[in-house]
Amino acid sequence: MKTNKFIDVENLQSAFQYDPETGRIWRKLKTGLKETGFSKSNGYLNVKFKKHLYLVHRISWGIYYGTTPEHPIDHINGNPLDNRLCNLRLTTDLTNQYNRKKNRNSKSGIKGVTWHLSGMAWRAQIRINGKKVHLGSFSTKEQAGKAYESAAKKLHGEFYKEQAA
Q1: In which domain, by residue range, is 52 found?
Q2: How many CB atoms lie within 10 A of CB 14?
Q3: Residue at which a domain ends, from 91, 120, 136
Q4: Which CATH number fits the domain that encloses residue 123?
Q5: CATH number of the CATH domain containing 68
Q6: Torsion angle of alpha carbons 84, 86, 90, 95, nearest 10°?
């Protein structure tokens, strides 16, 4: 079942209740409220409503603001289960990529750092407006990581996210 991006806000507001302080969501039943939401393999909370899957953070936004979010919604702290309003912000497809975690297949273990075999050095690179920008070659992966972090702080602005060690 595919997740539905379109949100009929009025229907959702009549079917769900959202607490912006805790990020929790409840389904409104004739017998009262029942907390809802289940996690899928992508780590996000979902709910099923009228034969469609909805992402809880998109429902939460829609219920609170009364409008369908036209853009992606970013979890500021990187935790897709934390749907408190203070942890959600509108973004673009591009800026939403800025605070992604390092690739799980990373051989260096550091975001933006790869081993460059022909140069026999660690290479730091960053994406700016969808294009890779070479930041330099370094003798250690730690130096390359510092170059990436410095560039990310400067270029990604409010979407910069310090990488865990």
Answers
A1: 9-91
A2: 10
A3: 91
A4: 3.30.730.10
A5: 3.90.75.20
A6: -100
What the block records as the tokens of 81 is 């289960």
Compute CA distances 65 → 7, 27, 51, 97, 151, whole Å: 12, 18, 24, 24, 34
pLDDT (0 to 100) of residue 50: 86
pLDDT score for 4: 56
Please report whether residue 87 resides in a domain.
yes
Average pLDDT per 10 consecutive residues for the chain, totaling 165 residues:
66 93 96 92 89 91 90 89 95 71 72 85 86 91 90 80 61
Q: How many CB atoms lie within 10 A of CB 52?
A: 16
Q: Can you give the pLDDT at residue 101?
A: 64
Cα separation, 60 vs 88, in Å, equals 9
Domains in the chain: how many in total? 2
